[in-house]
Amino acid sequence: MSKDVSLMDTLWTKISAVLPKDEEQFPLPFGDIVESSVVEMLRRSRRQLYSDTTSASRMLTAKIILDFSWEKLNTGTWRHVDKEWRRVYSYGCLFKVAALCRGDPSAEDVLEALRTCDMGLLMGAAIMEDLLQVIVRILQGDVRKSTKEEDSEHPEVKRIKMECPHVPVIREEVAIPRVKRPSLESFNTNYLLPLKPLILEGTIEHWPALNQHPWSIEYLRSVAGCRTVPVEVGSRYTDEGWSQTLLTVNEFIDRYILNKDGVKGSGYLAQHQLFDQIPELKADIRPPDYCCLGEGDEEDITVNAWFGPGGTVSPLHQDPQQNFLAQVVGSKYIRLYSPEDTDKLYPHQSQLLHNTSQVDVENPDTERFPEFAKAPYLECVLQPGDVLFIPVQHWHYVRSLELSFSVSFWWS
Amino acid sequence: MRWFGFGFNAFGQIYGQDKLLEGECFENEQEVKVSSPTELTAQEDRSDCRLKTDCQIRASWSRRASLYLNGDSCVCLSGFVSNESCGSPVKESRGCKDAIISESYLILAFSDRLESWDLQKKETSPSWSMEIKTDPEISGTPLNLPLVPGGYIATKTPLYRSLSPHLRAKSLALSSEHAILLSASGTVYTWGLGSHGQLGHGGLTPEEEPRAVEALWGMPMSCVATGGWHSVCISDGGDLYVWGWNESGQLGLPSRGLRKAMQQQSSQQQEESPCTSTAEEGETHEEVFISIQAFPALLDITPSCEVSTVSCGCRHTAAVTTTGDLYTWGWGDYGQLGHQTLISSDEPQRVELFKEQQMRVVDVVCGAWNTFASVVKEEVAGP
């Protein structure tokens, strides 16, 4: 009992140690786009941080800031949301976290604080030298300490939710070629310049994700279990029932990978820049050397995580950049079509989905889409250690055959 | 006529302004979130606005403007304003015919010109102004802010936007993302961003130019209003149509997000373990939740009642019936629904206080997170 209390007491000590010492040293610089009434609220929160007031008052001011900036974040298209509003949102998260962790926070308060940091990292923009990232690490340490004893007693039940009886046999004539550790030159000449797909073997063996810290459900739980991530729910993004929700990694694993609570429907942690959010995982991977053949810098490479049970499907679609899809855990069936055959692939007309085909690749409606059967393709079963080069604008369809974790690198 | 306000009051824009020093705001929940209708009082000892004069209300997020139009017309501001101007009429507003307020500026309409005053800077001249032409061709257009002769005043610069005269605009409602226009013939046009279905054309794509809402074709409308991401209109016959985003129940249709949040709240309050997951499965699969309504839907507020006027805040809606009742629904975190709670609701509910005090609601105007209703004493029916 007293052990718990002393753990919680030091949490605020650790957090206040990374905050500015006083109000004067706490910057609140904002551009004109943030109205003075909102700046007043922010200043109020800053004042409350260093003065003696009630937790309820602090939470209320933070709530006002969060509610207002949330509305700005949802106004217009995401791309055009002014970065200032995302910073305001992050400040709101910071003040809320400070209010939650003050004094003697309960275990729920700490989890709520963690969730709030993640919301700031997901929707906000970096403030005060990425202070939310610093605080999230402190909070994670705190959560790990207090749950250590509980964990070790429950061995992980590795039940895979969906049975995947249909493992396709790859015909030689349509197999994507495989080359072990091609030289930069030969890759450039034979595949990148002519835009030809290739599976590169033996190029990520050195990744810690396949060596020192082999990625597994247990490892992911330990590194990121209490972190909040966006999850796609519903079988595929072209379906009516498709939606996105926010879950902790633990909840995602329990519900959609281990199917512990019997919820129907599939979930996929897809197209998320998880490695910006969780630096420990970033340290387990490396951008492929072949990206240097492109024009951009390493910072311009978009790295996404794709983590889900067997049966997740990405419908046939194309992307505006080159892609290296690295397979870390489990296997995926992938089919590729050339952009030259787009006319046989029936892309959606709408602006929103014009990069997505209407055809269900493994169960095509031959009446609605008669030309589809004539479109030539290449296919593969991507295994751990493989990296698939998907040339820019190449149509690709992906279905996981079992629990799978892939990392994609979009580059130009 | 008396005005009552409820909802967001952190800047004293509903009541209590006199307790706050300049630039201060309320900190405790009761004062920030006014969940029960509270009468607005004019601070007549600090102003010369006649208390008994009928006034109109305009509200933004942090301020409220009281518009006195009889005789010596003027605008008085409350909320996030400088100490001197609190309660006293805005001197630049003397003689104005109409006004609208946003978070950053106050637009005043005079008989010969429009002016925009920056609320964040103390300046002696308007930041923008425009002559109103008394062109006989368009003089038929009544001044009905944000509609002005030949066009309208937008929520961001450039402030003046022209409108085609063939639209015959009668009234216009704007949010930061979209616009809804009512023509003289009762046709509804929408344009702007549509990613939350707020344009009512059945999709999520934006429209650059005013486009008639075909689903309402043949039904003349009499009133239009916009929230942050939703639209409402009233037909000549008193029916209410809603469309757009329903994340907080602002359309009055079943909202999944709302039910989930309520379930989470109630499960947190249960002290006993274990909260089984049947709570989620229990939500029967028959119930259809609507998060985006891309076509207008008829909303039955209460059987056999006609709606006379409607107004929307960012995420809530308030409607007045011909029988003098006020119904509210949507986001309620700051008490803006007026039901003496801080609960959001996806079902229209009557604000009982007015009924209890035998007051007849005649008008409603919403700020971003609050609601203002004007009432008159209900005439007691004779024997």
TrEMBL record, chain A:
GO cellular component, one term: nucleus
Top-level taxon of the source organism: Eukaryota
EC number: 1.14.11.27
Catalytic activity reported: N(6),N(6)-dimethyl-L-lysyl(36)-[histone H3] + 2 2-oxoglutarate + 2 O2 = L-lysyl(36)-[histone H3] + 2 formaldehyde + 2 succinate + 2 CO2
GO biological process, one term: protein destabilization
Pfam families for the chain: ARM_KDM8_N, Cupin_8
SUPFAM superfamilies: Clavaminate synthase-like
Keywords tagged on the record: Biological rhythms, Cell cycle, Chromatin regulator, Dioxygenase, Iron, Metal-binding, Nucleus, Oxidoreductase, Transcription, Transcription regulation
InterPro entries: ARM_KDM8_N, Cupin_8, JmjC_dom
Any one Gene Ontology molecular-function term assigned to this protein's record: histone H3K36me/H3K36me2 demethylase activity
Cofactor dependency: Fe(2+)
Coiled coil: none
Principal subcellular localisation of the protein: nucleus
Domain JmjC: 267-412
UniProt subcellular location: Nucleus
Function per UniProt: Histone demethylase required for G2/M phase cell cycle progression. Specifically demethylates dimethylated 'Lys-36' (H3K36me2) of histone H3, an epigenetic repressive mark, thereby acting as a transcription activator. May play a role in the regulation of the circadian clock.
Protein name: Lysine-specific demethylase 8
Organism: Pagothenia borchgrevinki
TrEMBL record, chain B:
Ranges occupied by RCC repeats: 186-237, 238-323, 324-377
Chain residue ranges for the region called Disordered: 260-282
Biased composition (Low complexity): 263-273
SUPFAM superfamilies attached to this UniProt entry: RCC1/BLIP-II
PANTHER family: RCC1 DOMAIN-CONTAINING PROTEIN 1
Protein's UniProt name: RCC1 domain-containing protein 1
Species of provenance: Pagothenia borchgrevinki
